[in-house]
Structure formats: structure tokens, C-alpha cells
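Narrative progress, year one. The postdoctoral researcher (J.K.) led the effort to move from monomer predictions toward full complexes, under supervision of the PI. The following entry was the first complex the group processed end to end, covering 930 residues in total.
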Amino acid sequence: MNHSIIRYIICRVLEFQALFLLLPGAVALSYREEAGWAYAATAAGCFLLGWLGKRLKPKSNAFFAREGFVTVSLSWIILSLTGALPFWLSGEIPEYTDALFETISGLTTTGSSILPNVEALSYCNLFWRSFTHWIGGMGVLVLILAILPLAGANNMYLMRAESPGPTVEKLVPRVRHSARILYGIYMAMTVLLILLLLLSGMNWFEAATLAFGTAGTGGFGILNSSIASYHLSSQVLITIFMILFGVNFNVYYLFLIRRGKEAFKFEEMRYYLLIIAAAIGLITWNVRGMFDSVWEALHHASFQVASIITTTGYATTDFALWPVFSQTVLVLLMFIGACAGSTGGGIKVSRIVILFKLVKNEISHMLHPKRVTQVRFGGHVVSKETWRAIQVFLFSYIVIFFTSLLAISLCNLDFTTNFTAVATTLNNVGPGLGLVGPSGNFDVFASPAKWVLMFDMLAGRLEIFPMLVLLASPAWRKG
Amino acid sequence: MQIIIVGCGNVGETLTEQLSGEGHNITVIDRDRARTEAVVNQYDVMGIVGNGTSFSVLKEAGVDQADLLIAVTPSDELNLLCCLIAKKAGNCHTIARVRNPVYVKELPYIREELGLSMIINPEHAAALEISRLLKFPSAIEVDTFAKGRVELLKCRVEAGSPLCGLPLTDISAKLHCDVLVCAVERGEKVYIPGGSFVLEENDLISLVASVQYANEFFRKVGMATNRIRSVMIVGGGETSFYLAKMLLPMGMEVTIIEKDKERCNELSELLPKALIIHGDGTERNLLQEEGLLHMQAFVAWTNLDEENVMLSLYARHVSKAKTVTKVHRIVYDEIIDSLNLGSVMYPKYITAEYILQYVRAMQNSIGSNVETLYKIIEDKVEALEFSVGKQSPVAGVPLKDLELKDNLLICCINRRGQIITPGGQDTMEPGDTVVVVTTNTGFRDLKDILK
């Protein structure tokens, strides 16, 4: 383990954190809020620490898979720890555990909140909350890769550890250029959304914060009613963009290089859209009696489906009051999640599809014991290593899910609340059902349960293995 | 014509035999001295020992005077390079054998860009041949003329068939369909039958018919024309791959049995819709488990002739499948013919025939030329398609007034897409293509049919 390079990269991460923190500081300045000093102080602290730490150059540039995993998980933990400071220092979230929960929830693009009354927060805190979504959506290390020349040729390990999905492909030969393209698309789409939201009648602050939440598929709103009180056109805009941000970004790259035909043939996107269409259809049919017209039912169903499958977590209505069938469909969507290579969380459509194909192959193998088959996805054969990793991922996922469920059940809340709380945090969705539904919040849990859920959020965002590697002792051995 | 053949393998030798027999001057080039000498001793050709891609060797072989160079060494790239150099050095026509499946989609591009006259992929050609056969399950061999509008089919007269004891003149009257029997094999003998010829049980008949009549004919004589829906292929070589690739889009279910695990993986990657079985195709239980009994077609295409023959015999014994058997060595052809194996294919003949077709077509003289050529019965009967030129001496004369050679039959006339089964008063007009079946080999021009 090359400790010095990890230290070096983490110090660069701290510098970036300082830069990020200046933005809410600026917001505080423009709204003349006193809470701004907390941001200035934290930013200064982060910068100083980072600047001092990076003065000592790393002894060697050796950087391999385990350094990649450890760097990514440590960076995320440090981003969370420092990002929580302003909430706590400004006194608006008095408990540090709560502040940390809120920050991790933001960075991992979950959007679960412990705040009973969001509207009581100052503008700069609201802005920071939403901005963490945007940072976490595409990943900090991907951003650093895009900007800084880091660690030589092996930085694919960093990108692989941070990017969601069973396989990570470079778009162009250089990791750095790939990262730039990804962030370019991400930024362009965010700016487009902000402009469209402004046109639909929001003010700058609302448009920016909601766009950050949508782009990162996060889900923090700035009103207690989430999205419900905005104009219909804004809601429709957000529905569309949530779905767009849940698509694999490679698709947009294909459009960019004018190979749109291939983009439409992208297998994962087709399944993703198919699942969305089916879920909207089922829920619209199920809730049609609760609204004045089928169109209204369709609107709310589409919004909620888009919000849950992309693991955003906005709400236009309290779906905890919907029929059980609709709720069950939504919980299923939480697990499926968005496409690999998007900003969304969950198990990912590609993994689910590949697993189904494995089942199909296994059945055919029972009928023809000597048959040789391959799993194909997106026109390519899925290598044995990939689908084995998917199976292991699924099992670890289930183990973490049920261990967490067992742990938080000590709080003695009802089963629906516990089950959906773990599901919603592990899949980075946001709201669950029961007490943690769209109108509830996570303050109902005791502190130890919150720590469990925080771990789940990080594990979910980094797709489990980086966090497990961090806990595994062999990773820390010298060598 | 002056022809250079590079590579004296199976196909090289077959080509040498055929082309030298047709009066061309052949020079063979091979790196192996013994093989070159063997060919020179056996046929009346010149032999040069050396690398066919070397300019000086080609020069020695007379590339500047050559009309055609055929490169059939085992290496694709060598063949292509050889053709390129010959093209630059002698400006002759060039034919290369390229068999690597990687190139298969790019062959037209390679041919165009490198200025080759023809590229042949033997495995692809064989697969094409088999797929044509499986389209007409009742026939033993199928060839096409007139861009696929006319089929030349070969089938056996089974016992109890209405064809038994029927004179040929009565066929169209009795069965009301327009087919023409153009050659009959009875034991060792081959006939180009006249109208009074009477068919007997076990005759192998070759007939010419347009596509719709061919199907009707088979139905009326009680031979199954059901489309084949399931095919089992034993042996997962390149031919099997191309064949599966052709059959799958036609809606057939394809099962391929292959011994080599690696090859199975490769095939299952390339053919996601086919059923790829890893196992020994000669194992009885495996064949039954994978449903041989209900297969409608069975293709034995392993590398061992003996295995292929045994497998086909077994398949014919236990199922009603149409069988296709690959035989590499032609030495024992009488025995194989007597075995009732269904369709038997000799891969090296397929390649040689394709090249021969091209060579014949190259030799166009004044009036007309050969468009297509098939050997209906090895070395004994050929079917040739000619196009009729404006100055051709046969144009416009009723057939009954032409003094045709013996053992020759004009089977059909294709007039702008319309297929005519000719009678005595029909004429061949400029622009038509005609199919001629004959026991006289080596025809080069339509006027050769005259006495």
C-alpha cells in the first residue's frame, strides 16, 4: 500500500472541498447571512490542511487497484466529515451526527433528511445541501481526474472505483479526456436545466438548487413540500431531466460524436425506458381513482416513477398514501435503480438484465447439459469475470441490506419504516415509506441507527466494494 | 491461356488437373520441391520451386505473359500479396483464396481496393452450397441459374414413386408441371435422355425447373417439400459457422456439436441464437439427447471422412433427416456412391468449380460466353449457362433446325426473366441466357453445341 500517494490525493481532494465551500459562502454574502462565516472558516481550514499536506511530494507514484479503492472511500469519508462542519458550526443543525447524516445523504445523492423543517435553514445551507448532490453525482475524483494530472497512467483505478456500474469504459483513449467529456456533458445538461427552470417561472436560487438535485439524482428540495408547490411545467421539466440523468452518459457521448443511431440501440437504455414505461402504466392505472383526471394521475405517476428509479427522491405528492400495489412497484424500482454510468444509484439496470440472462442460460443449460452459452449485453459477450462480480455484488448487497435492517430494528420502529429506510439509503433514493415517507424524516432513528444508514449510503454510492476493501485488513498491509 | 497457379495443395492440384485438361498452359509454383515434382510428373505443366510472393520467382514463371494468376497457398495474406505483386508485375487477372472468417465481410472491399478479379472463400462457398440444398430438402444437389430463377436439382427416384416406369414425354402431361429431366444416372452409366426414355427405380435424375415448378413437382411425385426447420451439424468448423449464419435468418433451429471447448465458446459468442453443444458428435447418447431423432436435416462436417460417413448412415437409420456428408478424399467415390448417403460434398471440388467457372467466363469469344458452370455428375456431365450474343450463329434458328452434338440438351431459355422450357420450334434470341446440359466437357462458347 502506497500511503504517501493516498495522502497526496486526499490533500488535493481537500483543496477542492475548499473551493466547493466558497460557493455557498458567496451565496451567504449575497443574501447577507451570518452563517457564511462557517463556510469561510471551513474552507480556510480545508485549504490550509490540503496545502500543507501536499507540500510533501509522494515518495512513489505506484498506484494500483487497492490504492484506488482506498483513496476513493477515504476521500468520500473526508469530504463528508468536512462538508458537515458548516451545518454544525452555523448552529442550524445542532448535532454533529445529524449534520454528517445530512452531508453524506447529499454527497451520495440520496436525499434523505433528518430535518423536520427544511424551510428554517438559511439560504447558504440550503444551497450547500443541494450543491453536495451535484458534486457527488458524477464524483469528486472524476472531477479531479479531469482537471489535475494525477498519478500517471494508473488512474483508471480511481475512475473504476468511483463510477457506478458493472464495467467502466473509457470513452476516449485517455482517462483524463474521458473524465472531461463526462463532466462537460454533466455541466451542459445542468446549465440547460437551470435555464429551462428559469423560463418555467422559478427564481435563480430555486432553479439552481433543484437543478443540482436533479442532475446528481439527489433529491434535497428547499421546501417542505419538495416539488409539489411548483408550477406544472417545472414539474414536467424535472420529470424529463430526472429520466435523462438516469441514462448512461455514454449514450450522450455517442450523440455528441454523431453516432446517434448506435445510441438508440443502447441495450441498457432500452430496458431502462421499458421499465419506466411499464411502471408508469401500472401505477397510473392503480391510482387513477385518487386524482381528478387520468392525466393528473399520469403526471404524478410519471414524476414519482422517474424520481424513484433514477434514485432522485423528489416528490409531488405523498406516495406513502397510495395503494399498496403502487408502493410496492416503487420499492421495486428503488432496487433496480438507474443505468450504469449515470448519476443514479441502485443495483443498476444492466446488472439486473445480465442476472436475468444468466437465469435464462441456466434454464437452457438444464435442458441441454452440454450446451455452451454466453451472456450477451449491448452486443458484446459479458466476460465470466464481469458476471461473477455481479453475482458477488448482489450477494454482498443482500448481506449488507439485511445486516443493516437487523441493526436498525433495535430502534423498535415498524417494519415498513425500517425496510424502506435501508432500501432508500442503500440505493441512494431519499424518501422511503412509513415514518420515513415523503412527508416524514430520518430524525425518528436513534444516533447508532443513523451511523448504520450513513454507512449504507456510502456503500450504495460507491457500490459496496470500495467500502468493504477499506474495512478489509489486507488492504492496509505495507507492500 | 497462360495460367500461373501458386500453391499445390488439394485445390491447386485439382485446378491444375482441370485447367490443363482444358488446354491451358499451366505453371505451378510451390515451396515444396517434392510436391511440385509430383504435379509436374503427373500433368503436362511447368513447375517452379520457390516463394510465390517473390517477384523474381513470378518473373521466372512468366508473369508478364500470364493471363491469370491463381493463389491458393494455405496463407491468406500470402495469397493476397502474391496477387498484388502479380497485378503490378504482369497486369494479369488474379484470383486469391482467402479463408479467414475475419475478412469475410470485407471481401468485396478487399477485392475492389486491391484490384483482384475474384476472391474465393472455400468454407463460405461450401456453406452456400449446403444451405441451397437444405432449401430443397428432396433434392440431393441444388444449383441455380439465371440469377436464382432456375434451379438445377438432382434427386433419386424412390421405389413406388409415380415416376417409375414413366416415359419422359409423359411427365408434363401427367403431372401438369413444367420440368425437364436433363440427365439420368443409372448405376455406372449416364444418359442424356430423349423423350422416350423410361425412368426406373433408383435412377438419379437431374432436372431443370423454375423455382415454383420445382416445389410443385416434388409435391406431385410425393417427395416431401416441407421446409426444414431443425438442423443438426456435427463439427464446428468454419463451414458450420457460415452455414449456421445462413440458416438462422431463415428461421431454422441450428444445433452444432463440437468437441473443442474453446471453439464452442467462440461459436456461442458468434452465434448467440444457435444451440452449441460441447461433446463428441459420434456419441450415440449425446446425439439422441440433443434430439437427432426429430431433426429434419443432419450435416456431418467433421474432419474425418469415416466419421462423417458413419454419422450420416446412423442418422439416416434412426431419423428421417436429410443428410449432407462431407468427404474429403475422392479416392473411394464408387463405394460412397453405393452407400445411399444422401448428399455428399467434396469441398475441394467446390472451390475448384468456382474458379473454373471464372476461367471459362474469362475466355469470352465473339458471340457469347459461359455465365455459369456446374458439374452435375463428376467429370461426366456439365450444365453450362451461356448468354446469346448478337452475331451468334445459333440465334434466331428454331431448335429443331439446329444440328446439335449428341448427348446434349438445351434445358431452358431465360428471356428477360421469363423462363421457357424449350420445344423444337423455340428459338434462342440475342440477350437470352440458355442452359445447356452435356456430356462433352470443355465447352467455351455457345457455338460449340453445334456439330
